[in-house]
Design goal:
Blueprint lengths: L26 E3 L22 H17 L6 H14 L6 E3 L1 H12 L1 E4 L2 E6 L2 E7 L4 H4 L7 E5 L2 E2 L5 H8 L6 E7 L6 E6 L1 E4 L3 E7 L2 E6 L6 H16 L5 E5 L8 H9 L6 E7 L6 E4 L11 E5 L6 H11 L4 E4 L7 E7 L5 E10 L15 E2 L50 H16 L3
Parallel strand pairs: 1-18, 12-13, 13-16, 16-17, 17-20
Antiparallel strand pairs: 2-19, 3-10, 4-5, 5-6, 6-7, 6-8, 8-9, 11-12, 14-15, 14-19, 18-19
Helix pairs in contact: 6-7, 7-8
C-alpha cells in the first residue's frame, strides 16, 4: 500500500500525522488515534444561512446527470463523488476516506499495511515518489525519491487524482504490478514488483563506531517515541559510558503521528517549546513543551535531513535547530507544515481535513518553505579505492627503534574484506560522523 506522504498521502496516511503531504505530516484522528482530536463544537446561532441558490444548482446538476449521462449512475455514487471533489479541491492533503481508506489509515499508524511501500504525492499532474519505505518491495526494486510514476500496469497516471493512483497500486498480497517511471527527465523504464505486507520498522539503531551511535527513523508511528527511548537506553548500556556523538537520520521520512514527533524531540531537549499549532477551531490550538528529563544525556547530535523529510520530521528538525540542540546536515526539507485532523463519520467513513499550521519554537512556519540545513551536504556516490603497496620505515631491514621505546608499527597486510558499514557507501552519513569526531576532538573528549 502506498504511504502517501506529502502531497496527498491518503492511502497511507497516519493518524495524527505529521507526515508528508498527506497522511504524514500532521494528522489527528478523532476517536481512532492516540492523539485524537474530536470535532470542534460549533455555535448554532453563529452558523451562516444555507446557500440555497448553490444547493438548488447542485440538485439540478445531479438531476440532469442522472437523466442524461450515457450510463445510469446511482445517487450514492454521485453524492460520494461530490464529497470527494469538495475535499480534494481544498488542498492536496484534505480528503474523503471511504471504509477501506479509513481502515488503511489506521493500519498505517500502527506500522503494518499491504502494498508496495511508497510514499507518493502529486506534482504538475503526475504521481511522484516522495520516498520509498526501507525494506519494502519499492526500496528493494531501486525506486527513488523524485521518480515520476507515469504509468501503472500500462495505464497513464497523468490527470488521475491521488486516490485513483493509490487504489491501482494496492491489491492482493503477492500480485505483481508494473510501474513505468521517469527519473531526472530521462527515458521511461519499467519496474515490476510484487505487493507485500508492509511491516514498517520505524526505528533502526546501531553503533557506527566505538562511542558513535546512529538512529534512523523511517516514519513516525504511535510507538516511535518509545522505540527511540529504548534505543538511547541500549546505547548507554552497551557503551558503558556517555557516548561521543549521535546521528539522528530523518532523510526520506514522510512524517506521521504528531505526538510521536514531540516525544522524539523531547528525548533530546530538557526545556522550552517543541512545536505549536494554530488554526480556526479551538482544538487546533496546541502547544507542546519539553520536560526536564534528558534521555540523550546531552550527547553531541547531528540530524540528517533531505527533500524527503516532511511534516513530523520537520517538526523534530525544526525544534532541535531552534533550540540549538543539534546540527542539521543534508539538504532542504519538503515543506509540509500543515496539520490534518481525521474526523470519523457514520458507516466507517471519515474526513481528513487540514485544520492548522504548525510552527517551530521560534515561530517559523515550515509550510511550502521547509527547513534549511545548517551544513549543506548533497548526496554523492562513494567509491573506495584499494591502498597501494606502500612500505613504512618499520618495514625496512635494520631500521632504528622508536626513541621513546614504543613498539614498531609496520604495514598491516590487508586480509579478508572488512564488514561493510552504513557510513562506507553513504556520503552524507560519513560526513556527519566526521563532523561528530571533529567536535569530540575540539571539545577534548
Amino acid at each position: 500500500m502506498l504511504h502517501l506522504s506529502r502531497l496527498t498521502s491518503l492511502a497511507l496516511a497516519i493518524a495524527i500525522v505529521i507526515g508528508a503531504p498527506l497522511a504524514q505530516a500532521a494528522e489527528k484522528t478523532a476517536p481512532a488515534t492516540p492523539a485524537a482530536v474530536s470535532p470542534a463544537k460549533t455555535n448554532a446561532a453563529a452558523k451562516p444561512p444555507l446557500p440555497l441558490d448553490e444547493l438548488r444548482t447542485f440538485a439540478e446538476v445531479m438531476d440532469r446527470v442522472k437523466a442524461a449521462y450515457v450510463e445510469p449512475v446511482d445517487d450514492k455514487t454521485l453524492l460520494e463523488n461530490a464529497i470527494k471533489g469538495m475535499l480534494s479541491n481544498l488542498d492536496p492533503h484534505s480528503a474523503y476516506l471511504g471504509p477501506e481508506d479509513f481502515q488503511e489509515l489506521q493500519e498505517s499508524t500502527s506500522g503494518e499495511f499491504g502494498g508496495l511501500g511508497i510514499e507518493v504525492g502529486v506534482e504538475d499532474g503526475f504521481v511522484k515518489v516522495v520516498s520509498p519505505i526501507d525494506d519494502t518491495p519499492a526500496s528493494k526494486a531501486g525506486i527513488e525519491a523524485g521518480d515520476l510514476i507515469v504509468k501503472i500496469n500500462g495505464t497513464p497516471t497523468q490527470g488521475q487524482n491521488m486516490q485513483e493512483a493509490v487504489d491501482k497500486m494496492r491489491g492482493k498480497i503477492g500480485e505483481k504490478i508494473t510501474l513505468t517511471l521517469v527519473r531526472d527527465g530521462g527515458t521511461p523504464f519499467d519496474v515490476t514488483l510484487a505487493r507485500a505486507t508492509i511491516q514498517v520498522k520505524s526505528v533502526k539503531a546501531q553503533m557506527l563506531e566505538n562511542g558513535y551511535g546512529y538512529i534512523r527513523i523511517t516514519q513516525f508511528q504511535v510507538k516511535t517515541g518509545d522505540e527511540v527511548g529504548k534505543a538511547l537506553a541500549k546505547f548507554r548500556k552497551d557503551n558503558g559510558k556517555k557516548m561521543s556523538g549521535l546521528i539522528l537520520d530523518l532523510r526520506n521520512n514522510p512524517g506521521g503521528v504528531l505526538q510521536s514527533a514531540v516525544q522524539v524531540a523531547d528525548h533530546f531537549l530538557t526545556k522550552g517549546l517543541i512545536v505549536y499549532t494554530k488554526g480556526r477551531i479551538a482544538n487546533s490550538e496546541l502547544r507542546f513543551s519539553a520536560d526536564p528529563a534528558d534521555a540523550s544525556e546531552g550527547v553531541p547530535l547531528v540530524v540528517l535531513i533531505n527533500g524527503g523529510s516532511a511534516s513530523a520530521s520537520e517538526i523534530v528538525a525544526g525544534a532541535l535547530q531552534d533550540q540549538k540542540r543539534g546540527i542539521l546536515m543534508g539538504t532542504d526539507t519538503f515543506g509540509k507544515g500543515s496539520v490534518q485532523t481525521v474526523l470519523p463519520l457514520n458507516n466507517d467513513r471519515a474526513l481528513k481535513i487540514t485544520t492548522a499550521l504548525y510552527y517551530t519554537p521560534n515561530g517559523r512556519s515550515i509550510q511550502a518553505q521547509g527547513i534549511n540545513p545548517d551544513i549543506v551536504v548533497r548526496r554523492a556516490k562513494v567509491t573506495n579505492e584499494a591502498d597501494g603497496e606502500n612500505y613504512k620505515e618499520a618495514d625496512l631491514l635494520g631500521h632504528l627503534g622508536n626513541g621513546n621505546g614504543g613498539a614498531d608499527k609496520p604495514t598491516v597486510k590487508s586480509g579478508a574484506a572488512a564488514k561493510a558499514r552504513p557510513q562506507d557507501d553513504d556520503f552524507q552519513l560519513s560526513q556527519a560522523l566526521s563532523l561528530l569526531k571533529g567536535l569530540s576532538i575540539t571539545r577534548g573528549n
